[in-house]
Amino acid sequence: MIASVDEAAKAIVRTSFSTLSNEANDFACVLTDAEGQLLAQNSGSIPSFIGTLPATVRHALDKFGRDGLHPGDVICTNDPWLGTGHLNDCSIVRPIFRDSHLIAFAATASHMPDIGGRIRSVEAREIFEEGFQIPLIKILRNGTEDKTFFELLRAQVRTPNQTEGDINALITANYLIEDRVLTMLAEYGLDNLQAISKELNDRTEIAMRSAIKNITDGIYDYQMQTDGLSADAPFTFALRLTVAGETVHFDFSGTSSV
């Protein structure tokens, strides 16, 4: 499974149009099970994308439902609350089917060279100044491209060829993941990834609980300040971490409100 997403990552590097992907590697590829639980990630991913992509998959499941997803569908969004945190990052999700049954999702994300809005997005005062907002929508249905979406996208950005090219690179990478996963299942005589997913998650939980046990029980407090919205109003990040046996409780009380 890791080989599948690593190969998809190489495909993005070789087919994307912007240097953000083919030189800076500002992207990620993941494979999840049918419930949106992470199974594999490419070896050189952006850490934040690895954490957000499975959540984006689950948001897609919530919106469309299993019955609303079909082979060849491709879902796209740059919604900060459903994806990676700002509009320049686009997330692409592809459901994977075997014998008409949903078995997994391929998901990719990358930083677009431009998404419209202000040139310096950090100066935006509201999300409408950040650029073109893409809700959780299908941009391919049953393998057929939504040409209207791409026409609208190109009209909103300063680099239409690069932005569209990078999105197509993500779409292609997801197709590659799907192809490799289905080939693997056929080779090993498996119908789905349920057993693999359960075993992987069980082992991960056991390993994590074992690691937590090595930490001395107690309460650990930490606080730091970072740049806020203005020089005289820094942002305070506070954490109280309580370790008890094989469990950890995180309390962010005292952290500045956004």
From TrEMBL:
Pfam families: Hydantoinase_B
One GO cellular component term noted in the UniProt record for this chain: cytosol
Domain Hydantoinase B/oxoprolinase residues, every copy: 3-256
Lineage: unclassified sequences, metagenomes, ecological metagenomes
UniProt name for this protein: Hydantoinase B/oxoprolinase domain-containing protein
InterPro entries cross-referenced by the UniProt entry: Hydantoinase_B, Oxoprolinase-like
Record GO biological process: glutathione metabolic process
Transmembrane feature ranges: none
Molecular function GO labels: 5-oxoprolinase (ATP-hydrolyzing) activity
